[in-house]
Each structure stands twice: as C-alpha cells, then as structure tokens.
Prior knowledge:
By secondary structure, the protein is mostly beta strands.
Amino acid sequence: MRLTTFLLAGVVAAALSAPAFAADVAPRAPQAAPVYKAPPPQAFDWSGFYLGLNGGYGLGRSSWNDPAVGGDSGRFDVNGGLLGGQIGYNWQMGNTVLGLESDLDWAKLSGSAANAGVCVADGGGTCRTEQSWFGTTRARLGYAFGSFLPYVTGGLAYGDIKAVQPGVTSRDTKAGWTAGAGVEYGFTRNWSAKAEYLHIDLGTATFMGAASGTSTLKAPINEDILRAGLNYHW
Length: 234
C-alpha cells in the first residue's frame, strides 16, 4: 500500500512539473543572419614606376628667314598627329605627388607657305617645315584627390626640325623647353588614364640656304601638344 502511494505521488509530481520544464526548454526565436559589409576601398597610391602609351595632335608654328636672299616667309602653321610612349616614377607624400617622366613621340607635323623671296630662292617656290619626332623629360607636381590627380609639369624638350628645299630635306636636332598641365585618373589599382597639354619650344634651326650656299637659312619651331595617354603602374 505504501509502495503504491509512493508511486502515485511521483506520477502526480512529474505531471505538475512538466509545464514548467517545457517552458524552460522552449526554443528561442531565430536570430537574423549578420549583414556582410564590404571593406572600404583603398585609396589610390600614386607612388612607384609606370609605363604607358599616348597619342594626340600638335599645332605648331614656323617660319623661314634667310638674310642672304633678303626674305622672310612670315609665320605659318605646322600641324599633325603624334603617337608615342612614356615612362616615369611618382613619389606620394600625403596628397602631394612629385614625379619625373620621360616620353618619346613619333610625329607627322608639317606646314608651308608660298610667296616671293625666301620661299622662291631657297624652297623652289614653297617654304616647308616638317617634324618627325620629339621627346620631353619633365618634372611633375600634382595634388591627389584619391584617384584623381591634377598636375603641372615642365622641363627639357628635344626633337628634329626639317626644312624641305629643292631636291633635299635638311635636318637639325634641337633642344629646348616645355611646360604644361594635365589630369590623370586611376580607374583600377594598376591602370590610369590621362589628358595633357604641353607647349614645346625647340628654338631655331640653321640650314644651308639653297640659293646662297651658306648657313643663313633660319627655321624656328614651337608647338602646342594635346594628347591622351594610358599608364600601367607597379
């Protein structure tokens, strides 16, 4: 009898405690999955070497003068396309970017004038100046707005000046100066694109005058260069 009473009391106690136990072990509400946040993009680093290509157009001016035949052609345009490459190195200090760049371009610039005097005597009727290549070695100073870099630039320029006379093209290689400005944009970590303006002054070349047979023919050339480029950065 006692055993039966004891078992019955245990069953009653278990039944009474079951709701409380069920409440204790009730499943928790599901939690929302964590939202993935991409890391912030790294600022473009302009420091290091780069190598690239460029192309554009040159708008130049020239003239012929030969005192031996008493004539001056006056100024005339010397225009044409250009294509080349560049190599350089940048140092970035905060937002300030210092650089050194050298480029070499094939060019097809030409122009002429026709009048009496020097063009008839030395040019067979036409004063023609041509240029087939030029290069520059320049310092650059820019201020970086992240991947956007406006800059100013200046330094040494060099190239050829050609005077086309009857039966012969006389050539002289000259050195001068250049100055300009540009903007460059880094659209990936390793690639950037740029647009640039340069003024180039190669001074005056001296040639043998066809009429006088002496080195009295003077042909200066200077030009404004507009070009775009693409660079790969290491």
